[in-house]
Amino acid sequence: MNDGAAGAQAIARCGKRVLIQHPDTGDSPDMPRATLKAVPLDRLATRLAEIAGQPCGPAREIRMEIRLELKIASLEGASMSNEERLGELSPYNCPHCDGVLWEIRDGLPTRFHCHTGHAYTIEPLSAVQEEALDHDLFDLLRAHKGRTALLRQMAERSSAHDVSKKLYLERAKLVEEDAQHLEEIIKSRRAFA
Predict the structure, then answer these.
(1) What DSSP element (H or E) covers 150?
(2) Spatial distance between the Cα atoms of 120 and 112, rounded to a whole number of angstroms
């Protein structure tokens, strides 16, 4: 919700004007509120009346770190050395490509970029990580249940006196116990959602 705030802040840092919709009139009030925290803004109607019909003014030089961040986002300048110039290596991985994320702290809001161009502010990063974790837990649960069923099928197809039958059943029991633990983890996470 505050990715727009990062963009608005970059625009303001280049000396340009930033206008937003009033938070109470939009579909997503968190977006303009995040921008209000990141950039000092003027009232929309007053500013529109003042700037209507005025020339834009001369083009200004875009700051190096903003140009670099845009190049990385569009995969034009994605390299480990560029990301190091942009921010600090964080302990977090990109939820989309599993690459490392660099943390950029040049004002509000804090942003994270990977070398393939994925970018997040902190709240969306948390939400995407949460979603990825839920997905992974359900994948693990499904894999455990499938593995349990396969081991039981293998045991059924073994002869009654076959040593492997007992091993298959013991292994199936252990995998099933792991699946039960995963179900408990999933249920406990849902209690906090």
Answers:
(1) helix 122-157
(2) 5
Query: Rounded distance, CA 22 to CA 141, Å?
Result: 45
pLDDT at residue 144 in the model = 97
Q: What's the pLDDT score for residue 108?
A: 67
Q: How far apart are CA 89 and CA 83, in angstroms?
A: 8
Instruction: Tally the residues of the chain.
Output: 193
Answer yes or no: is pLDDT of 147 > 80.
Answer: yes
Where are the chain's structural domains?
A: 3-51, 64-117, 127-192
Q: Full-prediction pTM beyond 0.70? A: no
- The residue ranges of DSSP E strands in the chain, in sequence order, are 88-93, 100-104, 111-113, 119-121
6, 14, 109, 126 from 2: Cα distances, Å? 7, 19, 7, 12
CB neighbours of residue 68 within 10 Å: 18
Count of Cβ atoms closer than 10 Å to residue 89 Cβ: 12
